[in-house]
Give the backbone structure.
Amino acid sequence: MRQALPLDRPGQSALTLIWSEMDVIQRTALAVGLVLVMLAVLAPWLAPFEPNAQSLLARFRPPIGFERASPGHWLGTDELGRDILSRCLYGLRLTLGLALLGAVIGLLIGCSLGLLAGVAGGRTDAAVMGAVDTQIAVPFTLVALFVLTIFGNSLSVLVVVLGLAGWEQYARIIRGEARKLVRMPFVEAARAAGATPWRIAGRHLLPNLVSPMVVQFTSSLSNIILLESTLSFLGLGVQPPTATLGAMVGIGRDYMPTAPWIVTGAAFLILAVTFAVQILGDWLRDRADVRLRQR
Amino acid sequence: MAIHALEVLLRMALTFAVIVTLVFFATRLSGSPIDFIVGEGLTSEDREILIRYYALDRSWWEQYRAFLMGFVDGQFGMSFVERRPVSAIVADRLWPSLQLLLPAIGLTLAVALPLGILAAVYRTSWIGSAIMSVAFLGYAVPNFVLAVFMILVLAYTLDWLPVVGNGTALHFIMPTITLAAGLIAALTRFTRNAMLDVLGQDYMRTARAKGLAEHEVILGHGLRNASITILSVVGLQIAGLAAAGSVVVESIFAWPGIGDLLVRSAMRRDYPVLQFGVLTVALAVLVVNALVDLAYAWADPRLRQAEAA
């Protein structure tokens, strides 16, 4: 059987155990990730200004340390005189929040359908896997473009789109694992003891599927962050004046020749987020060894 | 082989039918289809004519049939903005998109295959880890962030390259690199994994034992066997990545291709153009996938002979 994740081991603190297993890069990623989450959570208390408060007298001011800088605006101001540091913090908060929400929705849809397909088999299985194949065949950016255009790009539609972005991967993996588990003696024993399919799925299969779910969750999280920032960058995601990191880069690119600081802060934050999530996701995948078990 | 080909084509047709159906029902679910198809600013008589033309006063089933027929005879609708048939608008954009895609894919193959092979052969030395770190960068840096940094440095600071349009050869550099970066990262990873699977095989030892030079062993026996796995990845992953990447890259560099068209029509709610464009790109991806699937079956002697025997 596979090794348990360090989280499952009692006694020592989980964080100490995780820390001791990582190399320098992974530790950096973990530290950066924790800092980013803290910044996002504490944004309302950390931000020096309201993110959407405009000050037309202080437009296009560069960061502190440059000529013409406006005191208090550490990273400068944008084309409407809004404080970039505050917008970055709130943008980070919204980007991470949306990604988390989307990943959870994808997890719920994908795991339910995957479990259903794995346990029920037959036509249900074929129908679910057909839907999975269809979604894999079409680049999701196109689906997102289309859905956001016809249903209007409100925040709730965006959340639905982000939630639909990764369900097929969960469904595929969970269905495969569930089919393997269903043939195992302990499931047969439960069935012989009279357990209903619901009970088998909930009490016997689900606990064994946590590890692949966690691994898939990180990888889908990074995909969703990428999708949300790309859509917002293109002007199709979160609508102005609300700040997300992608939207800040998207709008700021028009002012790059004269005010490059508008894009750089948000762009670096996006890089920090994707790096941290990718490195931690890779670490978790190697740790849980999902790929090797899939072969 | 023939049966397999038929299967692949059927699966492609079925998937496309599902997509077309989903597009149809999504538009009907999202509210009054008249607003989408007909657009605003028309007199009530014009509305009536168009409602009858698209059979919007009939049952869903008949509407669906009219929708499908429109796809077949090329009368897919008019753009709200340009007042031209959407098929003509999309057709204009095909060639610029290919002009960008083909060099990007060429660059990807030229860079990613050697890097992937090297990373597999030297997996324990610094060469392997250096290559994989670079590949990781390509994976983790979103392509629009890469584009923004490149524009900032190469265009605005150093003033070496133009940003917008596709007029000269210089215009191709940044879009091609941006589009290829993500593809290179993906293909390098896959090539390395495929080569690693092959390098430990018995036939590699045999090839070495019979005295072949190392490069003949790696390329003639290793790459040749790994190429089947790589090919399947190129079709399934790269086609999708390239389509999604084109949307972003063309939009950033105002490249007059389909990706740019899709984003523009989405922003302007030019719904008929968006619908037709999305379906065209989806069909292109499906066709590439099907072709690769067929090539895969043809390239793998095991599959070829299984049919013959």
